[in-house]
Design a protein that fits this description.
single chain; alpha/beta; Arc Repressor Mutant, subunit A; D-Maltodextrin-Binding Protein, domain 2; 11-stranded mixed beta sheet; two-stranded antiparallel sheet; 9 helices; 13 strands; elongated
Length: 306
């Protein structure tokens, strides 16, 4: 098809061969093969060059459109020609906030933000090229990342205690981890086998907390309704998790200290991913993470901040 259009545009088999960096004989064979497939003559050979037949004239606009479609198909997967695809886990998460900040700093980079479920799904998508990067807590113990996947720490997000107005700790300006012992912390979104389940398992084991993951997960709105109405229950929320609730809920977000449990966010990507937007994202996150101080915080021993 490309050879056919080249002959039309140059008017000569020899000139088309030069443009395509092939021999004139190869051009003749390609045109002959195309005419055989179509069972029509596309060109009339004259002393002055190649002229389109009536069939050739009818075929030309479709041939050009096919080439344009082929070019668009190739461009759709070329690094830099397609959006940078990044997994942020949830739309209200700290990772989503990091991506909004990146978009403000680099509006010229087109983004495609997705929300995958667990780290295994995210890593498989990174390795297959379905996404370019993912924000995760790296890997739980015994499940190291594949050798072709890199990670870099980008953010420690402090946990906050979220209570209703009648909870025993609702009036506190801050609470220590020790003060949480004996209180029921309800987190129905924890799914066994996920990296965040491994994080909270370690938190419970380290400090003797009571975290309940019972009941169906109806989403954040239902969780907030229950916490607001149930004095015996509280939950953990990330400091940068964006929440909106009715004014009459009277919910309290209380910092946790001594030490402050932090949820680690890392960026994962495939080592050989050449997308230029990925390099810009990594540079942006590295600048945002500068000056971090982990003193007085707690994270599981399997977390690597590097």
């Amino acid at each position: 098809m490309r050879t056919f259009v080249a002959v039309v545009e140059t008017g000569q088999f020899q000139d088309a061969a030069a443009d395509l960096s092939i021999t004139q004989q190869a051009v003749s064979k390609r045109i002959a093969g195309l005419e055989k497939d179509l069972a029509v003559r596309l060109f009339t050979r004259t002393a002055r060059g190649a002229r389109l037949t009536i069939d050739g004239q009818a075929f030309l606009p479709h041939a050009r459109e096919l080439l344009r479609v082929a070019e668009r198909a190739v461009a759709s997967v070329l690094p830099g020609s397609r959006p940078l695809r990044v997994d942020v886990i949830a739309s209200r998460s700290a990772a989503s906030g990091l991506m909004r900040g990146f978009h403000r700093a680099h509006p010229e980079i087109e983004l495609d933000v997705v929300m995958l479920f667990d780290i295994e799904t995210a890593v498989a998508a990174i390795r297959s090229g379905a996404i370019d990067a993912s924000f995760r807590a790296v890997a739980a113990p015994g499940r190291p990342l594949p050798e072709d996947v890199e990670s870099v720490w980008v953010l420690d997000e402090a946990l906050q205690l979220l209570t209703g107005p009648a909870h025993a700790l609702a009036g506190a300006r801050s609470v220590t981890v020790a003060q949480l012992v004996g209180h029921r912390i309800w987190m129905p979104g924890i799914v066994p086998g996920t990296e965040w389940a491994a994080y909270y398992d370690d938190l419970v084991a380290e400090f003797g907390l009571t975290i309940e993951a019972t009941g169906p997960n109806f989403g954040s709105d239902a969780l907030l309704d229950t916490i607001a109405d149930t004095p015996a229950l509280a939950t953990f929320m990330g400091e940068q998790t964006r929440l909106v609730w009715p004014a009459d809920h009277g919910l309290r977000r209380i910092p946790v200290t001594d030490p402050a449990p932090v949820y680690p966010h890392s960026l994962l990507w495939r080592r050989d991913n050449p997308h230029p937007g990925l390099a810009a994202l990594r540079a942006h996150l590295a600048a945002a993470a500068a000056g971090h101080d982990a003193a007085g915080t707690w994270a599981p021993g399997w977390v690597i901040r590097s």
